[in-house]
Specification:
58% of the residues lie in helices and 0% in strands. It is built from four helices and no strands. α1 crosses α4 and α3 runs antiparallel to α4. The radius of gyration is 19 Å and the shape is elongated.
Length: 106
């Protein structure tokens, strides 16, 4: 962020959000209906759910999927007016792939 590298910051923020989403616990439809108000749990932390812990392989898969998605969209942006956006997506994908190639940089 201090280097003002917007492509890197954008790629990393989006990937961190994707990892956060991957850790979310699936919600059962029955849980969505809930209880009657008088039966609802009360107090701090009663609505918190434990998050899943991703394996290293799962993290790599999410990062790889994020890079792949950027490359796929960049390939679809063929109009000259979208050249800047396509280049930015390719740069973001390269940033993510660099982290996969050299895990010591993470």
């Amino acid at each position: 962020m201090r280097a003002r590298d917007n492509a890197t910051v954008s790629a990393l923020r989006a990937t961190l959000a994707a990892l956060d989403n991957a850790e979310a616990v699936p919600v059962d439809e029955a849980d969505l209906r809930g209880l009657a108000l008088e039966q609802s749990p009360v107090g701090v932390g009663t609505t918190e759910a434990a998050r899943r812990e991703l394996s290293e392989r799962s993290v790599v898969d999410v990062v790889r999927a994020e890079a792949s998605e950027r490359l796929k969209v960049a390939a679809q942006l063929t109009a000259p007016s979208h050249a800047d956006r396509a280049a930015r997506l390719r740069t973001e994908a390269a940033v993510l792939l660099r982290f996969l190639d050299d895990p010591g940089t993470a």
